[in-house]
Every structure is written in structure tokens, then in C-alpha cells.
Amino acid sequence: MGRSLKVSPGCIEQVKSALARNGFPTQKALAEELGIGLSTVKKFLTGQPVDYSYFLEISGRLGYEWRKIVHIDETIPKPIFEETSAFITGTPITNPRDFFGRQKELKRLFDLLKRRPLQNAAIIGKKRSGKTSLLQYLKNITTPTEQLRPGQKSDWLPYPENYHWIFVDFQDSRRQNREGLLRYILESLKMSVPNPCDLDRFMDTVSSNLDRPTVILFDEIGVGLQRCPELDDGFWESLRSLATNQTNGNLGFVLATPESPIELARNTGHTSPFFNIFGYTTILGIMTETEARELIGRSPIPFPAEDVEWILNKSERWPLLLQILGRERLFSLEEGETGDDWRKEGLEQLKPFADLKSI
After folding, report:
1. How far apart are CA 263 and CA 257, in angstroms?
2. 283-305: per-residue pLDDT in tens?
3. What whole-number distance in Å separates Cα of residue 175 and Cα of residue 205?
4. What pLDDT, on the 0 to 100 scale, is given for residue 144?
5. 315-336: per-residue pLDDT in tens?
6. What is the mean pLDDT of residues 245-266?
7. Cα separation of 123 and 135, whole Å?
8. Beta strand pairing status for 164-169 and 214-219?
9. What percent of the chain has pLDDT over 90?
10. Under DSSP, is residue 254 helix (H, G, I), strand (E, B) or coil?
11. Is residue 272 within 8 Å of 233, Cβ to Cβ?
């Protein structure tokens, strides 16, 4: 869970008085507007620790720059990083709390995986459209509810703790040879690893021991097909056989790819029927307006309404572009800048990703 913060004892009274000044007749009214629990608001106003993100939300809504009212305990070692980023632009999102949108796609994916036999799916999208982040969200579905955002959906599966999720990144050189990949899958399943770990022994081990729902998430599979000669048609045909005939419906695959699995196989010289088993494909597009506004609203300092509309318009609701423009606006507010220079900088930062908007 994120770091907890509390109001400095000397600031508690002024913070309490800010309720009425900001149009909140009761603590409950503030809690309802922010969509958080009343107990959290009460803790904040009485100087008790609350989660870092809630502290920033409440501070901002009451008109305070959080650093000016936070209690600093000099006896506690300071963390290397003072806070987590509100807007993430350079790396895939790995913490479910930071993942926004894709609700339609998630519902369909989990519907395919909530009963036997597990079915297979392909997530299709251009570079930087959010494919890896979506796979990471699937992998981390068992994150405790208290570590998610208030109201964030977590009941996708009836018994998520029963599932194995194995994330395979084919950009990782350790996954680019047959034995290394098979060994990694068995270790992730906590199964004994035969020596040598060849395909036949792998098949025997998994088919004899896989008794729980297991989803293998293949990221950047195109890299594996293009660069890994050991991952030939015989390899992929074995995986298909394992999923369809030898694990009682307990094994499913989700691929992230820039094109359909069949086209990807054809373009890389593969003919294995493995690439025909993906009965559901989804193409990642823009966020819904509601999802985009929720993402923008995570800023610890609320954005003026006109800035929100400008960000929605210029990003065309692409997640990465929303994150970039949100980051630039937050930087400018944190630095106390005035004017529209942040907009110019934001548009400059969007230029390398112009191809996203051309989809």
C-alpha cells in the first residue's frame, strides 16, 4: 500500500475550517464528492494517517498545497522516491491502481477466463497503445482491494486466487530460447524442472500436474517469432495440443500483438495451427470519455475545467497522450506557473506519437 501521511498538528484547525470555506457543510459532503470513505475524511481532519493518494486528493479539494500541511516525522527515514507518479508515460503500467479504462475489453477477457475451458484471446494494437499495460493488469488481478483506487472494480473473477498468471516478455533474452522459456514457465507454476528441460519433458510435467486455471500472457510475441528459431512450428503445435487436449481446459493464452495472430504467423513464416485458436480479438482504441476524465481526475492538484477539455480534445482520448498532457499540466501547477506554456510543451511532447492518432 502507498505511504501514509497525516496533517501537521499545527494545521488541523485551519484544515477543519476549510470545509465550510470550500462549500462543504459536513465531512460527509466532502467524502461523497471525492468518492472516498467518510472514515478517511475524519482521519484526515483529526491528524491521523491516511493513504498518500487520499491525502493529496483531500488537500487539493480544500485548497491546500499538501506539502504545506503535512506532518514531517524526522525520525522516519525518508524513502528514495517521495511519491509515485500521477501520470505514467515512459513505461508500461504495472500497478493496477494506476490502470484506467479498457473496461469493455477487460469484461470480455475475464468472461473468457472465468469458466472451463479457458478460451484464448489476442490483444491487437499499435506500439504504445497500451497492450503491455493491459497484460500487466490481468497478471495482477489478485491485488488486494485496499491497494486499489476507491471504487475500482476488482470482482472480475469469482475466485481469482485460484489462478496462475504467467507473463512472458519475448524482449527478454532469457525467454528467447526454448529451454529458457520452458524452464521459466515451470518455475512460475512451481513445478519441478526436468533436466534437461526439453519439450517432451515439459509436456509431460504440465499435462500431469496442471490442476488450476492458468493463463500465459505473451507480450511482444512478434519478437519471439522473428528472432527465436528454436520456437518453431513444432513448439507452437505442442502448446496448442497442451491447451486444447491435455489440461482439462485449465490452460489459456492471451497474446499482445500489432496484428492478428494469423497475419503475424504468416508474416514470420509460421504455419502452426496454434495461431488459429484465438477466438476473441480486440483492437485497442481510444478511451471512453468517462474513462479519460477519470484518468485526468487522478491529478493530486485538480485541473481547471477548460484545461480538462483541452486535454481531451488534443489527446483524442488516447491513453498515452492523456498521460503526457496530464503530466505537463501537473508539472506547471506544481511549479506555480501561469499562462499556457505547458500546452505548447505538451503538444511538442506529443509529436513522436502522431501515428497513434492516425489509427
Report:
1. 10
2. 999 999 999 999 999 999 999 99
3. 19
4. 80
5. 999 999 999 999 999 999 999 9
6. 95
7. 9
8. parallel
9. 77
10. strand
11. yes
Strand bridging mode 4-5 / 251-257: unpaired
3-class secondary structure, 166: strand
Residue 2: partners with Cβ closer than 8 Å, 6 or more residues away: 51, 52, 53, 84
Nearest to 191 by CA among 174, 154, 166, 155: 166
Least Cα distance to 308 among 318, 295, 319 occurs for 295
Which of 53-92 are b and which e, b meaning 16 or more Cβ less than 10 Å from the residue's Cβ?
Answer: bbbbbbbbbbebebeebbeeeeeeeeeeeeeeebbbbeeb
Cell (9 digits) for 200: 517432451
Mean pLDDT, range 269-275, rounded to an integer: 94
Are residues 30 and 16 in contact, defined by beta-carbon separation less than 8 angstroms? no
Q: Identify the three-state secondary structure at position 29.
A: helix
pTM across the whole model: 0.77
Question: Residue 166: beta bridge partners?
Answer: 216
Letter string b/e over residues 179-218, b meaning 16 or more CB atoms within 10 A of that residue's CB: ebbbbbbbeebeeebeeebeeebbbebbeeebeebbbbbb
Residues 6, 8, 13, 16, CA torsion sign: negative
Mean pLDDT estimate for the chain = 91
The rounded Cα 162 to chain-centroid distance in angstroms is 21
Closest by CA position to 99, among listed 127, 139, 66, 126: 139
Q: What is the H or E stretch that residue 165 is in? A: strand 164-169
Q: How far apart are the C-alpha atoms of 347 and 313, rounded to whole Å?
A: 12
Q: What is the pLDDT of residues 46-99, one digit of tens each?
A: 999 998 878 988 998 998 988 889 988 755 555 544 567 899 998 999 999 999
Rounded CA-CA distance 260/256 in Å is 9
**Side chain identity at residue 59, one-letter code:** S
Residue 273: asked if its preceding bond is cis (omega within 30°), the reply is no
- Rounded Cα–Cα distance for residues 132 and 9 (Å): 44
Dihedral angle, C-alpha 16, 18, 19, 25, nearest 10 ° = 110
**Angular region, 167: left φ>0, alpha ψ -120 to 50, beta rest:** beta
pLDDT tens digits for range 182-191: 999 999 999 9
